[in-house]
Amino acid sequence: MKRLDLIFSERELDDVLSTLEKAEVPGYTVMKHATGRGPERVVTEDMEFTGFGSNAHVIIFCEQVTIDKIREDIKSVLSYYGGVAYVSEATPL
After folding, report:
1. Calculated CA dihedral for residues 10, 23, 2, 64, nearest 10 degrees
2. 20 to 30 Å CA-CA from 41: which of 16, 21, 25, 53?
3. Which CATH architecture has domain 2-88?
């Protein structure tokens, strides 16, 4: 089992979720308004009324075959809009 973490601008959430749905991922968790420190060395905050500047964090637990299926599409979306993706091993308790 793999865990895929995607962190990107919340404005691109629909595009990323559309890519995941096309690949028929088994499910995912979405956390909106994610914030943190980047290369600029300050914790970024979103603008409360617009959400501009906030990030989304999507977590997917799936098999390697699904990761392979969505890899190029996700890389394309993240390279165009910005964001990061990490794959790690996931072991259920």
Report:
1. -150
2. 16
3. 2-Layer Sandwich (3.30)
